[in-house]
Fold these 2 entries.
Entry 1:
Amino acid sequence: VQASDRFNINSQLEHLQAKYVGTGHADLSRFEWTVNIQRDSYASYIGHYPMLSYFAIAENESIGRERYNFMQKMLLPCGLPPEREDE
Amino acid sequence: MYLYSLTLQQATGIICAINGNFSGGKTQEIAVARGKILDLLRPDENGKIQTIHSVEVFGAIRSLAQFRLTGAQKDYIVVGSDSGRIVILEYNKEKNVFDKVHQETFGKSGCRRIVPGQYLAVDPKGRAVMIGACEKQKLVYVLNRDTTARLTISSPLEAHKSHTICYSLCGVDCGFDNPIFAAIELDYSEADQDPTGQAASEAQKHLTFYELDLGLNHVSRKWSEPVDNGANMLVTVPGGADGPSGVLVCAENFVIYKNQGHPDVRAVIPRRTDLPAERGVLVVSAAVHKQKAMFFFLIQTEYGDVFKVTLDHDGDHVSELKIKYFDTIPVASSICVLKLGFLFSASEFGNHGLYQFQAIGEEPDVESSSSNLMETEEGFQPVFFQPRRLKNLVRIDQVESLMPLMDMKVLNLFEEETPQIFSLCGRGPRSSLRILRPGLAITEMAVSQLPGQPSAVWTVKKNVSDEFDAYIVVSFTNATLVLSIGETVEEVNDSGFLDTTPSLAVSLIGDDSLMQVHPNGIRHIREDGRINEWRTPGKRSIVKVGYNRLQVVIALSGGELIYFEADMTGQLMEVEKHEMSGDLACLDIAPVPEGRQRSRFLAVGSYDNTVRILSLDPDDCLQILSVQSVSSAPESLLFLEVQASIGGEDGADHPANLFLNSGLQNGVLFRTVVDMVTGQLSDSRSRFLGLKPPKLFSISVRGRSAMLCLSSRPWLGYIHRGHFHLTPLSYETLEFAAPFSSDQCAEGVVSVAGDALRIFMIDRLGETFNETVVPLRYTPRKFVLQPKRKLLVIIESDQGAFTAEEREAARKECFEAGGVGENGNGNADQMENGADDEDKEDPLSDEQYGYPKAESEKWVSCIRVLDPKTATTTCLLELQDNEAAYSVCTVNFHDKEYGTLLAVGTVKGMQFWPKKNLVTGFIHIYRFVEEGKSLELLHKTQVEGVPLALCQFQGRLLAGIGPVLRLYDLGKKRLLRKCENKLFPNTIISIQTYRDRIYVGDIQESFHYCKYRRDENQLYIFADDCVPRWLTASHHVDFDTMAGADKFGNVYFVRLPQDLSEEIEEDPTGGKIKWEQGKLNGAPNKVDEIVQFHVGDVVTCLQKASMIPGGSESIMYGTVMGSIGALHAFTSRDDVDFFSHLEMHMRQEYPPLCGRDHMAYRSAYFPVKDVIDGDLCEQFPTLPMDLQRKIADELDRTPAEILKKLEDARNKII
């Protein structure tokens, strides 16, 4: 494998990471990964109305309130990020 | 195993609704999305909602918007879905279809975080549309017209911002300046990086304006300003000449008016007095109403209260924002204000309503305003109000909705011919048990007893031009009774009919004379009262008669046919005689075609199992044109003419057709197409209707001819939106029927059954089920049948609600409070009066207003014993101490001391999140007393988890308590633990048993197959599934097979391979040695997935049942959105081949409307396996004729054969 190719793959990866939110990389931390999964899940719940209604029935809230709660949870889906180790 | 999937009842819940002039012209329509279905509704002149068009799009519709190009008369529909495409639809009034005008791909399919489709916003002047995702991406499409006035769409312009969550989008009305879109956005990038949490606490929502520069063809962020952190929704404020422009930001507790360069104008949303302080008030739906000189908004909160929002403005400057209490209606997902003064409310759960405005809230009421907004140390001062009865709105119609369907059982408790579907629907105070019966609902107008057993009934007009019928003629075995129709129906003797003999037929003949056919002759009563009598020759008598308005054919005993025609003067003239080979079973003449002298065809049914078509033309009179042999002697014949349609709301265009229907003695209805020129018979279809030979009658429904078939139950054959439907009527067995028309009832049916005369009307056409509703108290969770007494035991529970006693007390208190005027507002006097008369007349109904909210950790629950026959609750136990019931089953313990007992699993103080480790669960054991009508608590056993599943097993009780499967025996004081297995991954939610096998469903990990070894007293898992499935419903299909449904909307079947199953059964250790060698914490054996299908809706219940008497069983399912479907196994390889090819061609030739690939949709989570989508196949008749022929050619069949196949497939299920 030549150096230029490697550079090429890297740049492609960077492009993907910029374009598609949630594309992983080698140094991805457990926290970042979970945050992504959680945000994807919430977005999916909001997008699939039957699932949203299913949650709304379980929690006895209105569907509108349930959607708002899920949106709100997208801010910090897994709590605060851990302290950085390298600094 | 190959399955045919068919939706029997389309989803009834509504995701979003928009209104506009989609068909052009003055009428307003409502377009509603019901998940994968797009419907067009219209309130008719009587204020009833009619469905004009309905199409399944095989994709999840997430948002709808309408727009209109400047100067145009017609609105287009933009659809945001999971297809990764933007689709613009136009309703084609002529063909009654949605035409896809544009479809532009912008991203991946599926409901993803950054793929737009969740939000849609249109420029109020129809120049651009913005489509947004939950995060980051927003695309703007410019809409324009080309030289031929067709709609054009540009390539997308990006308005992306990464790390930004979008809460809402709307267009800003800025006249003909550059289009502006507003968005509520939240940037999370800093919060993700800051471990101290400071950034997160400072995270601020912004209101951002995006400007589309039409000159530069570019979108830029024009303006962004912090906005209340509770903001969740935007509403466009009219601009230009109509208003101040800008947006209303709906936030938790507030409505804020914002615009660029304008100070915020804020007002609080009034709160209900009984609302706990911890809860906010969130707006969930909004609508704007614009008239020439004014506009106002209606906003609805999550509790159902509707407020009227008005802006005081002077030009562009808004001085005051007022929020006034309007009315309270059930919480809606969308509300639409129609120009005709209607409000359509698409309820989140339960029936949708159409309301009419009585007033627009001009009278004083509780009001909060920006001008008297008070800020204190604890925040803004709230304004309180008390809900009252409807003052401004009045409900005029409702559209039934089963959403959410929580549990369902197909049972035949009423011992009717077909089973009934018992379904638990709704939520909270709007919960109900709905008993669904396949068939059309009817309205009974009158029932009256007659002297004796009537054998036949006819109605007759006095003149061909009369609108209404003049007489009802009833024939008995030895007499005829004539009733005249007027204000009342009463017997008359001056009609000229012979009343001392039975009648064979009574009809109008010519323009204005009446005919009575009796066994000894024909009596012809002229308009002036003259009577002509034709007598039968010799001792022969008339046995059968066929007639229309101008022609009469009689069959004499022995088989002679005599044909009469009415001539120009109205005289009945004998034309021809013909001797047939034997006695005749039945006769019919086709109705006289428009503008003709006579009908050409006579159908004759003989006892030698044949039906013949005879000509009535003068040239070849009574010559046989064609012969058809049938499986049994025909009992009744009927020609049904289907008029030509050129589309429109009748559906697809089709040429005129003549059908010959024969009711055979074996209960089969045989339907054949008659060639209108040659009289040749072709394309025959048959359907079993019931145990009695069907008698056929022509009636009229919605102005079109239809057929009533009376077998052991009545059926109606009619054309609805271009399709022929043959549907049972939910009514008792009838003997004879005739159309009935009077000024009270334009299109009724008069019928005889037993010794009664019944008049009824047929209600809504096109429906598969009709329902009987029994209201319930709380959200129903599950129910079981008490098999011996046929009673239903229902468990109901609700979170965050007060118990019945607490509610009663609170209500009393609030009325008293209302009396002393503590409403916290200046309008106390008004409220006082209002509250007073409410107290007397109509206490607030919970169904309308919802239960008052309690703290979220409070639960209420009840166990109900209900007698479905009388729809009465015979016992209702309200659980105390914050306990809620989750599971129920009937159990017979092996010592038969008590007989059948009821086990109910409950939890005290259930909390979903954070998960409590120590929840206290109980298993209650009840005894049925008073013939099963009441319950008596035997004892209560405390368990350490949530008992979500209970099941009887070998005279003991199996309980799934969290991850533990445990076997209990009945003790004197409590249940006794016998055996347990703690190896289940998460939480057990279903247990089913068969012989010594136990099929356990885990909430997250699909099925586990277990065995119980009695000698070693051990429960062990011998097989499980390798796919994580979040089970929502399960059903045991056979010894090795389970059907399940997961939360993502998939239905699947798993099966233990045959060899493995045998091995386990033969192994003396029952596979136990192998079990000990299980790898990776799993069971040693794995089940295979044999069927997989994406329904696209959360399936909540599965059951194996047959909806037709004697038919094979199918798997029926019910979903959260209120749809009911069935999966039916194919019995022949040929059918599988045929339908899979038809499905393939349909996919190619007729891709779904909203741009989602059909195959990809049905394989959304797992590849579809061995299921053919009947809903797609059934779209075949809606294709244009040439496309139908093309597909049919490729399948080596004719379109008619394909239609027949489709009909047959459906008839096997329902």
Note: Chain B touches chain A through 64 residues (CB under 8 Å).
Entry 2:
Amino acid sequence: MCVYGYIYTYASKRPAFLFNKIPKSISSFYYTHYYGIKYTIIILYCFIYNLVYLSVSVVFVHPRVVFFLLFGSGVFKIFLIRAAMDAEATVKELRATYSGGKTRTLEWRVSQLKALLKITEHHEEEIVQALRSDLNKPEFEAFVHEISAVSGACKFALKELHRWTMPEKVKTSMTTFPSKAEIVSEPLGVVLVISAWNYPFLLALDPVIGAIAAGNAVVLKPSEVAPATSSVLAKLLGEYMDTSAVKVIEGAVPETTALLEQKWDKIFYTGNGKVGRIVLAAAAKHLTPVVLELGGKCPTVVDTNIELKIAARRIISGKWGCNSGQTCVSPDYIITTKEYAPKLVNALTCELEKFYGSDPLQSKDLSAIVNSNHFDRLARLLDDEKVSGKIVHGGQREKANLKIAPTIMLDVPADSLIMSDEIFGPLLPILTVDKIEDSISEINARAKPLAAYVFTNDKKLKEEFIKNVSAGGLLVNDTTLHLAVSGLPFGGVGESGMGSYHGKFSFDAFSHKKAVLQRSFAGDLGARYPPYTTKKLKLLKALLKGDIIGIFRVLIGW
Amino acid sequence: MEGLQLSLAELHQTFRGGKTRGVEWRKSQLQAIINLITENEAQIFEALHQDLGKHPVEAYRDEIGIVKKSADHSLLHIEKWMAQKKGWLPLLLFPASGQVLPEPFGTVLIIGSWNFPISLALDPVIGAISAGNTVVLKPSELAPACSSFLHRKVPLYLDNEAIKVIPGGSEVAEQLLQHRWDKIFFTGSPRVARIIMSAAAKHLTPVTLELGGKCPVILDSFSGSDLQVAVKRIVGGKWGPCAGQACIGVDYVLVQQKDAPVLVELLKNCIKKFYGDEVDKLQNICRIVNKHHFERVRNLLKDPSVSASIVYGGSVDCKNLMIEPTILVDPPLNSEIMTEEIFGPLLPIITLDKIEESIDFINERPKPLAIYAFTKCKRFKERIMQETSSGSLTFNDIMIQFLCDALPFGGVGESGFGRYHGKYSFDTFSHEKAILQRSFFLELEPRYPPWNDFKLDFIKLAYNFNYFGLLLLLLRRMMGRSDAK
């Protein structure tokens, strides 16, 4: 039997004290007629080399058959090589589909949106199960925040699609008379959607809906931190969608890195600022436009003249009722006055008990923390010396089930750990100010959040808040609800991201607005062309000003 | 460096002070820009002549006039732009109101370009001011006279606490980019754009990139006066704006083989009429901006197979940095002149068997900033519109889309992203803040835990906006309750 052997060895680390004479890497071609002793020696050589140098060998034994010998730190590299090959092939395939023009047709877009809708209708149970295994998400939350939100967005897009795709006629000025102008929305091409783990179903499919509606080919990279949902997405999208244009690539850092190296026409990333910067820097290489949906410390201002019970319930539903606070728009901290704080704490405590019982760790209506990394991070925030004495409610935790009870802290110092980063968990610090108006400067002293909430009946405070607080979105007298409104853009500003989506804004995020101007051959104006004269200058001045009398005056030489 | 820090601190201070948010301030600054350019018209003409040899009429058409028109347009519409827009709300949220309120980003950086050193610097500034930002403008160092004009004059007219001009070369740009901006607006080349975007990534700064690309002209078969007009427009669009050193200028022409000879003849005549026919006596045309670019453009012609394809012009005047309007027919497609943006007075004409092939020809190359198509065929128009992609698409004319305030101006793919002009300038420098206002009146109990089946059903119906179903559900529940009692 004829066997090819091609060996490539990659050494990532090279301990100098051992075998200094062995070449750093070898790359050679072997050809033998049988699985003889020579072949075995080569394999053995690789094996030892791998062990000594913490390296990787790839042995191509036969065309198309690839054996990997993986050892040491090189393992990561080999994944990179494979992921890069996958990513490149995927993009190539999608580009071919896109240039075929299929995705641009209205029929294709409608059929794909309908397929997505079918996924939400036929596989509810499966999705709920996946979310339960990833986040222990209550069925209700899974349904309200994820499945219905996706199907709602799908239905809205289906209903409005023909209106969105219609060219928008615009007025032309006299300067270009006679002419006809319109703005045509066209797809960008092949886009990448990288989603987050906290709403692994919604945040994956919501942008995909926009991308499909706009007529793009899409690669979706679901978050590896929510593995069950990730594999459900890969399975269902593979079954229902047109896989030549919509693909799911599962994976972690190496896969994402490989994907980011490809050239995309748009990247849509949901996650944190640290990775957001990496995505943006990677996009810079190909001049790819990016939408970043990040988070931030979303403040909630509570005035003293409100219906306290209702406010407390709305805060709770936005904080703990949204994935145990693991939500980018959840209230991160509360600002209220010194006198009012105890009352607010009372109301929150009372309502919390009604919602989640006296032992919230046992409640089925609370999500768990996603993994032990995040659990430890939150535990560190709780154990910080500066806040440990400030806990006024909750504080219980159970590492085995990754559960942390709703926890309220009063009067935490501004320099504590919990106030420096986004909390992203079921802890709620309360800051107190002397006058409620001071809350605005308190908010503005920090980075711009994704959302800011105010509970007040005072018209003046409301107006001040709207005018002076800069955030992705503002919500008066409620929390997180603005997400459900497809007529409002959802997106951050400053540290909380760039670009927006939801409803028509999703369509726009994945479209290029092409300016189309149609002129006729009549009405050619000599003044545009050289040789230039002063008369032409005068005429141009009048024209650009849109001054009809001026034009006449120049033309008749007055 | 320290001076820069102080300037920036001052700008941040001004922005926080809230002065720039007022409509009065914005209007006064827009008016000041108009005053700046109208009162100093002669000086601008002079500066543009020094930097680029631009003729005053061209200077007015492409620079002063553009800025003035933009500022006028903004002044007229700014109140409407600043007003909040209503967002549509579902009945379920009743009582509530939704709005989208544009708010300024903060302190923005605008980096101008040398080919239109006045308009490409001040036009974005108009947008930034209209939106209520504080601004740092860095004009291009390659147009030194205009840069120093802006540096000298802008502080005399505009509010110095909020708008600063910082002239300088790449070292200055580098220093500027190390700071945190709320938005960066850049006009220039893809190479620099990549540097800028990488720098912006560190601070998560959104950027608008106005780049260029090889903008093609598709010329269908014409005869008679229509062809004359088309040729005039092509010549005006190629050599008119800054001698082809324009991002939306014509880069090459696609035409059917049989129409090429006539086209070349007409182009030649038109060039002679517009600009004269001797390289040292050329009139009404700009020179190349500097020695470096002069050499770059000249090198495009050096390749023997390219120089063999020259059918008109080709001579250069090293002393005055002039290059004669040059026409080439079918230079090799893999030569630099057909792979790089030309950005100079050379016009390759590519002949095709059928004009419909032009669509594939264009799609094989990176997306350009503009496509120009001269055709009367409706079907062909529709095909070009649907099947090609570019920043803008203009039928039967060149460059004129730039003047249309109602159309967004900006690229796609390699030609950049983000857009401006008119209302789009305002949007480019604004964050659209979503606002939802609710009252304490009316509470939907099913929003809150502990969860049960009734709440789940309720929410399911609510998401479908099935109000009738909701009513039935509530009725059933009420009946159920009274039964239980």
Note: Chain B has a mean pLDDT of 91.
